[in-house]
Design a protein that fits this description.
- Helix content is about 60%, strand content about 0%.
- The protein contains 18 helices and no strands.
- It is an all-alpha fold.
């Protein structure tokens, strides 16, 4: 298989696996004091949770992946399997399971900013996200897309994200989390002060209800940008955040997994998730990657799909979409 294709597959798998590990870590760590997280790592075993319900209660990530693999485009209308029974709007929009449903869309349309934005907005509209939650979802999707395209530069991520969001809807979006996070990154701010624990509160993130999704995404990006090349440290830092930890850790895991690839996730963590080697997340990520690559039948076994070859003269291979915004 072509080396570039192999690396992209690793990033697809890393995104799914990283998100699942982040969510499971946060769920298991909820009952432990933050100082005892190392005890959990010493006895890490997520296999039971992974086997019974690897993607949480909402099956969006599986259903959306299936739609994209089978149809090559996003079609959510009338699909009862991915309808969300909204109970409390704020709680639903901060549900890590629901946010995982956006990952297949991000992966499948990562190479073109316009298509990425249109399809993410289709999902957030269908799932009744607020404008603030939509902005946050677009920011996360764009960050993962940059990682998949190997153009994510931590030093310029936030200005790029602002430019991306402004290009979509201009001043109609609140654009809260990029500017807030940039302010924090420009100052020496500890994780405690970012969480809002400093006495003065001068460096803490905003707390108003209208900004809850922006706050969660800003915390996730802050944890990632501190040590982008160290998946383990990114996730462990996110577990110190006492603010919707499952969502924050899920976002951190997805971004760090996309940036570092599947091989960049600690082996012991991958084994703790699935001892047998092949998991549901591996299968979904590989099939989605195969469909994105244009394979006629992207639903075969993992071994068959990974044998896709792409060997041509230099400069002949091009992305599916010829223009990357």
């Amino acid at each position: 298989m072509h080396s570039d294709a192999t690396l992209l597959l690793s990033r697809f798998r890393g995104t799914y696996t990283g998100a699942i590990l982040g969510q499971m870590w946060a769920s298991h760590a909820a009952s432990l004091p933050k100082t005892a997280l190392w005890l959990l790592e010493c006895h890490l075993d997520f296999r039971e949770s992974s086997a019974t319900n690897p993607f949480g209660n909402f099956r969006g990530i599986e259903e959306v992946s299936k739609i994209l693999v089978e149809k090559g485009e996003l079609s959510l209308d009338g699909n009862k399997n991915i309808s969300i029974p909204w109970l409390e709007e704020e709680t639903a929009q901060l549900d890590a399971d629901i946010w995982m449903g956006l990952l297949p869309i991000t992966l499948f349309f990562h190479e073109n900013n316009s298509r990425l934005a249109v399809n993410l907005q289709q999902a957030t509209t269908s799932w009744q996200f607020s404008s603030e939650a939509t902005e946050a979802a677009l920011g996360v999707g764009y960050t993962i897309a940059l990682a998949l395209r190997e153009t994510l530069d931590p030093a310029t991520l936030l200005p790029q994200t602002l430019q991306f969001l402004n290009a979509i809807e201009g001043d109609s979006l609140p654009l809260q989390f990029p500017s807030t996070l940039q302010t924090l990154l420009d100052r020496p701010a500890s994780l405690e002060s970012v969480k809002g624990g400093s006495p003065s509160g001068s460096q803490s993130l905003p707390r108003p209800t209208a900004q809850i999704c922006s706050r969660a995404v800003a915390l996730a990006l802050y944890c990632f940008l501190g040590t982008p090349q160290d998946f383990r440290t990114c996730v462990m830092r996110s577990l110190q955040v006492d603010y919707h930890p499952e969502l924050v850790a899920t976002i951190v895991g997805a971004i760090a997994g996309a940036y570092n690839g599947y091989a960049g996730i600690p082996l012991s963590w991958r084994v703790a998730l699935n001892l047998e080697g092949e998991s549901t997340s591996d299968r979904l990520a590989t099939q989605l990657w195969a469909a994105w690559s244009g394979r006629y039948d992207p639903t075969g076994s993992l071994d068959m799909l990974e044998e896709i070859a792409a060997v041509t003269a230099p400069g002949v291979l091009r992305p599916r979409a010829l223009e990357v915004d």
